[in-house]
Specification:
By secondary structure, this protein is of the alpha+beta class. Helix content is about 20%, strand content about 25%. The longest helix is centred in the first third of the chain and has 25 residues.
């Protein structure tokens, strides 16, 4: 994807308004604060992409994170390749446990995470992105899209299961 296409895609993103937390109790504000901070971080990222200069960057933007470490006997083998730390990359997720949540319980789904090629990277992983408390979530299908990254301690972190969508009827 070239820079122009990236900027056009970013301009098409419509983010929800930041909620006004004044109407909530302190406990609810504390629970919602990480969501608000995440939303603001995404908003800053999208704004930053939209405001990039039109000139082509000196270094092309990578589509796939650079490889920094190979685990296995030989690189030609079926070794697992670990992307550079803190680089978010696309994955597939399949629900492997937990529940959708309801008005009394938080969503607790966990996922098996695989590479786009189908190699299993981790199991029983909970998304890092905050979920609304005591809300039901629509069940994602098998091999749904997700975003993940490798933590500095070499553990896979699932940032978000993209098809895990809040059911607004049960909150």
């Amino acid at each position: 994807m070239d820079l122009t296409a990236l900027k056009q895609a970013a301009r098409g993103i419509r983010l929800p308004a930041t909620p006004n937390l004044e109407a909530f109790s302190q406990e609810e504000r504390d629970a919602l604060q990480p969501f608000v901070e995440s939303m603001e971080a995404v908003r800053r990222l999208v704004d930053g992409i939209c405001n990039l200069p039109d000139a082509t960057p000196a270094v092309p933007l990578p589509v796939v994170p650079p490889q920094t470490q190979v685990l296995g006997p030989e690189p030609e083998s079926d070794a697992r390749i670990i992307p550079e730390r803190a680089d978010i990359f696309r994955v597939k997720v399949t629900k492997d446990g937990g529940s959708a949540g309801d008005e009394d319980n938080n969503c607790s789904w966990t996922y098996t995470v695989t590479s786009l090629e189908g190699d299993e990277l981790a199991t029983g992983v909970t998304p890092e992105k905050d979920r609304y408390p005591k809300c039901a979530y629509a069940e994602p299908g098998a091999a749904s899209p997700g975003l993940a990254y490798w933590h500095t301690d070499d553990t896979l972190k699932l940032y978000e299961a993209l098809d895990e969508i809040q059911d607004t009827n049960v909150c």
